[in-house]
Amino acid sequence: xxxxxxxxxxxxxALALAGCASMTPEQCKVADWYQVGLDDGANGEPPRxxxxxYTEDCAKVGVRPDAARYRAGWEAGIPRFCTPYSGWREGTRxxxxxxxACRGRMNEGAFSMALNAGLEVYRTxxxxxxxxxxxxxxxxxxxxxxLSDQQRRExxxxxxxxxxxxxxxxxxLADQESMAPR
Length: 182
Prior knowledge:
Layout: H1 2-18, H2 25-30, H3 33-42, H4 47-59, H5 67-81, H6 84-92, H7 108-142, H8 149-177
Helix pairs in contact: 3-5, 6-7, 7-8
């Protein structure tokens, strides 16, 4: 039994590092389907998609996932994902792919609100990054000796506006980040 647990720990680590649903033949042979479901639930992975992928991967070595144990594990794991903290984390990463994972679950509202707040943080960070790129481009443009006085004025005006906008966005970001679930 210890050998099986060690194999499963290695298989779980490899799966976590790979970040995908597929399993190697060795992982299929030693999988604890309850634990696989528990991990997938805790990560907000859709059970039907994951189980279908495992079924396809493991069929190559004659292993059939235990769907009932997997589903039981997934049901035990999904509450770990359906938290405001997970919603916030997914949102700040710009990940909306798991927004339906908590549909109909007890913490659906809190998860959804935190996801949306995290998405606002993500968008604000994207705007700051975009403005930074534009500022660098305009600063480089000002070094062009061929610019007319009018073009220089317009470029400086645009830089002033972007500088003001960056200040506003940074204040907004600080306010948004203060709303992170604790």
